[in-house]
Specification:
5-stranded mixed sheet, mainly beta, 50 strands, 950 residues, 8 helices
């Protein structure tokens, strides 16, 4: 009984202690001339507790007794702000807007005004948010994004230390951190992970080119996690924070037009932002953006025979592909946020976002099939349509003097579909593809009759290593190209997330804060895919059937748009002929046209190869965490805790078994339940006012990709193969160790240096083995977990303005960062479908060297910036059965962008931008650099525009 009373008394004192004295709260909003200031350091003179302002600049100091005080606000690049105030009779103090002014020069000092331009203000925001963060963090502000020619979220974050991107037609698409696979990086929107849907529906990586950079207020990259963040982020967490409601009427308009050299076409970009206070309690912000452009790629691909058992022949070239891509792309984005202050202690908010990415692609391909001794012309076009929307309702509540409660409910959905041709019903549409075939004889072949590069060829007869020429012995002719196949690739997939979350923050004392919370997330993934194929009856051996040639159909000149593979000297001009039109392609899916051409469907929705392509999966995750922030001394702080995530996945698919008697289809339901425990600790040690040492140990993980979880199984008795997904895959786990030193000096100058190590287990790969089926050996392929891997490296960064130099030199500045990454994993080695051992290699898609450089010149009116982004070569595809000399590698890539702007007045700014100034290609090779496998050029693009800010 005494124990029970003691416990109740202690608990009451712990949670209600804040009410026992005459105490209250002090709140306000930190701003400057450009808007809210996040992560400002706010504290009361002679008190130990120090807090940072929220993303909207707001702050609340609790548990303050009656008395006279002086508030202090610190922000890099600004004068320290002092504000006296008095608390009487426990009345809440509203300090309103606290506007920070520029840091002026002291008398007789050489230094000038710190905040003298828009970019300096954005740099001050980023540096302050980084400095005041509790963990190892990189920050990018909206103003910094606007000073570079980055039009989507991926292009924007590539400037951050340790970040690399994968591109599509010259535009950033996927984000990777510290060389890890893209699906190992968590991309979140206002703290909630974004759903992913795309054309390949292959992984959990979010397609960032659907997300316009104009909707972003700031980007925060957490390289070391804290327990309140989702744990599925081995690479890190990239949080995109949308624009927040302003404290005064705000209007910003931007419009620009430009030109893409590769597609010889103009671009258009426009955005508008408007926000205001409706009442003293209610405020909002809304924004809209449209970006219309045409992109293009010239591409050459070599398809090697790396699967052949003969070692020499495995280097031969089976096929040369010449591809010309044209894409009319449109990105739409809308953002709306509303904040309602019920009173000084209770706030409600709503955030909504919608983005649509439409990619109208037209592709013309010529395939020289050296082994099959023919040439294929393929024409295809389709609208890729990707939608993303997110809605979030939440609140923040101060309960007494010690307890703060945050809650949110959200729904987010991403969907993708091929949306062509328009003459079909919406649910029947897909990606139309038509190909024609002509017999062909080839020259310049090696002594074994195969196509090689000269360095691999028996006898040395072959092509130089720069590129491959077809050496065809007769012209490619429309009158000889026979209709071969009509294909419709259908793909609709969606991902929907429903979330509920609550977080409680309790101030135990000035030196210790406790935080705990829980989240539930329901994810549904739906994939509906099939490849429909029609062939001429004549090609199927049906007598009396019509034969069709390309010359019978509507044609248009090859879309050279100024040339094809120009940087190579236009070596393929002679083989490019007129192509059929997109309108003609669409007619092949008309029933009357199919009948007149004698087409017969050979692969339908219910064919063996399609039945297992569609599936549905649900993933329920219950997570809970507890963490504490303990300020051991004025300069030393520990943040640590635990996170637990319970996962329940269910997948529904099809199993198809084919034999000589027919096909049997079976429904499959499979699933897995597992629990994940994640301890984490972060240390922040202030060596002095401007030097910080950070260290962290965190445990994180990466869930398997959805395609790998698809339980569908195909048994093919003709090829003696079994292909199967694996819902029993374990997540990939990583124990992460991080160390970072930060030195802040000068006005807005910074030097950082750090190291990291990741001990990885259960890495997922494609496993091959021999399975006995009815006494016969079958090759069985399924994703499995490897035992372990490791990834480690170091990174350095610098930001320096040369304001102490004389004359015009004082307006120059430099930003740069470099990351070195190494990894090691043991992959199985196979021979004739059986594992014979292991070999060491790197984790796929992990570049060893990444660096970014920015050289800028900036006055109060003029800004000129030159930016470079480098990504070193890496293994992009591991071909275990063929061996390391047949692995596909991505070659090093260095792109250079430039931008300039001039402020006509306080409210009007002109700007110009250029991307990929030197037309840097994307290049892949097999085994060695001289054996090119894929080479593509996307050209240069640029635009001119004007910004209006009121």
């Amino acid at each position: 009984m005494l124990r029970r009373r003691f416990f109740l008394t202690t608990a009451a004192g712990f949670f209600l202690g804040g009410f026992a004295m005459a105490q209250t709260t002090v709140h306000g909003v930190v701003v400057d001339q450009q808007g809210n200031l996040p992560n400002a350091l706010v504290y009361i003179e002679n008190k130990a507790e120090k807090i940072t302002s929220n993303t909207d600049g707001s702050f609340v100091l609790s548990n303050i007794p009656d008395g006279n005080y002086r508030l202090i606000v610190e922000y890099t690049g600004y004068e320290t702000f002092y504000l006296p105030f008095t608390i009487v009779d426990k009345k809440t103090i509203d300090l309103g807007l606290i506007s920070l002014g520029e840091k002026k020069a002291k008398e007789n000092a050489i230094q000038e005004v710190v905040i003298s331009s828009a970019y300096k203000a954005s740099q001050a925001r980023a540096i302050t948010m980084k400095k005041n963060s509790n963990t190892i963090t990189e920050v990018l502000s909206a103003d910094a994004i606007g000073k570079l020619p980055d039009r989507n979220a991926a292009d924007a974050v590539q400037r951050m230390q340790g970040v690399s991107i994968e591109r599509d037609m010259g535009e950033g698409r996927f984000v990777a951190v510290r060389g890890t696979p893209v699906q190992w990086t968590s991309s979140t929107l206002n703290g909630s992970r974004m759903p992913s849907a795309s054309g390949d529906n292959a992984n959990r990586g979010v397609q960032m080119d659907i997300f316009p950079s104009e909707l972003i207020q700031s980007v925060r990259l957490s390289k070391a996690l804290t327990p309140d963040l989702d744990g599925d982020a081995i690479g890190g967490n990239v949080d995109f924070i949308t624009k927040t409601s302003p404290n005064k009427e705000t209007l910003a308009i931007s419009t620009a037009t430009g030109y893409v050299n590769m597609s010889k076409s103009p671009t258009f970009n426009s955005s508008i932002v408007y926000g205001n206070k409706i009442t003293e309690k209610l405020k909002f912000i809304s924004s809209a953006v449209i970006w219309q452009r045409s992109s293009a790629i010239d591409q050459m691909r070599n398809i090697f025979n790396y699967g052949l058992a003969d070692q020499t022949a495995s280097y031969s070239i089976n096929q040369l592909q010449l591809r010309d891509y044209l894409a009319d792309r449109r990105t739409l984005g809308f953002n709306y946020a509303m904040d309602y202050d019920i009173n000084s202690k209770n706030k409600l908010y709503f955030k909504g976002l919608y983005s649509q990415y439409k990619d109208e692609q037209s592709v013309r391909e010529t395939y020289f099939n050296f082994d099959a001794k023919n040439v294929t012309l393929q024409a295809r076009h389709a609208d890729y349509l990707t939608d993303l929307y997110s809605m979030q309702l939440g609140g923040n509540h101060q309960v007494g003097q010690r307890l703060e409660i945050d809650w949110s409910l959200s729904k987010a959905r991403s969907s993708f579909k091929f949306n062509s041709p328009e003459n079909l019903e919406d649910h029947d549409r897909g990606y139309p593809i038509v190909n024609f075939v002509q017999p062909m004889t080839y020259g310049n072949l090696a002594s074994d009759g195969r196509k090689y590069f000269a360095m691999d060829a028996p006898g040395g007869t072959g092509d130089p290593s720069d590129f491959t020429l077809p050496h065809h012995q007769s012209p490619v002719s429309a009158s000889q190209l026979k209709l071969n196949q009509v294909i419709l690739s259908q793909n609709r997939n969606s991902e929907t997330d429903l979330r509920g979350q609550i977080d409680l923050k309790y101030t135990v004392s000035e030196d210790f804060k406790l935080q705990f919370g829980t989240k539930f997330n329901n994810k549904e993934k739906v994939v509906d895919a099939a490849v429909l194929v029609w062939m001429p009856k004549s090609a199927l051996g049906i007598p009396g059937s019509p034969v069709s040639y390309m010359s019978q159909f509507d044609q248009t000149p090859f879309p050279f748009k100024g040339g094809f593979m120009n940087p190579l000297g236009n070596p393929y001009q002679s083989v490019m002929i007129n192509q059929i039109t997109n309108g003609q392609i669409d007619q092949f899916y008309n029933t009357d046209t199919q009948n007149s051409l004698g087409l017969q469907q050979v692969s339908g929705k219910n064919s063996n190869s399609n039945m297992t392509s569609s599936y549905r999966g649900t993933e329920n995750v219950w997570s809970a965490y507890m963490m504490g922030t303990w300020r051991i001394s004025e300069n030393l702080q520990l943040l640590g805790g635990i996170r637990n995530e319970y996962n329940d996945i269910s997948f529904y698919g099809k199993k198809v078994v084919s034999d000589k008697t027919g096909t049997v289809t079976e429904d499959i339901k499979d699933g897995k339940k597992y629990n994940i425990f994640l301890p984490m600790i972060n240390m922040k040690w202030k060596l002095n006012k401007d030097r910080i040492l950070r260290a962290a140990y965190t445990r994180s993980f990466a869930r398997p990709d959805f395609n790998d979880l698809n339980p569908g199984t195909i048994v093919n008795d003709l090829s003696n193969t079994v292909t199967q997904g694996n819902t029993q895959l374990n997540p990939t786990f990583s124990n992460n160790f991080d160390l970072m030193f930060e030195n802040y000096f000068g006005k807005l100058d910074l030097v950082t240096a750090g190291a990291f190590y990741k001990d990885i287990t259960d890495l997922i790969y494609k496993d091959q083995s021999i399975l006995n089926v009815n006494g016969l050996p079958y090759t069985f392929t399924t994703p499995k977990n490897l035992e372990g891997a490791k990834l480690y490296g170091f990174e350095v960064g610098i930001s320096k303005r040369f304001e102490r130099l004389p004359g015009i030199l004082k307006y120059f500045g430099f930003e740069g960062n470099y990351t070195y990454i190494a990894s090691e994993v043991k992959m199985p080695v196979y021979e004739n479908g059986k594992q014979t051992g292991t070999m060491k290699t790197t984790i796929p898609n992990q570049a060893k060297h990444i660096f970014n450089t920015i050289l800028f010149f900036e006055t109060s009116k003029l800004m000129i910036r030159l930016a470079g982004n480098y990504k070193g070569d890496y293994v992009s595809e591991i071909r275990t059965a063929a061996g390391p000399d047949h692995y596909q590698h991505f070659d090093k890539n260095f792109t250079v962008d430039a931008s300039t702007s001039y402020s006509i007045s306080k409210n009007i700014r002109l700007f110009a931008e250029l991307n990929n100034i030197f037309n840097e290609p994307n290049r892949y090779y097999m085994g060695t650099k001289s054996r090119v496998e894929n080479l593509s050029y996307s050209g240069i693009r640029g635009q001119l525009g004007v910004n209006f800010n009121f």
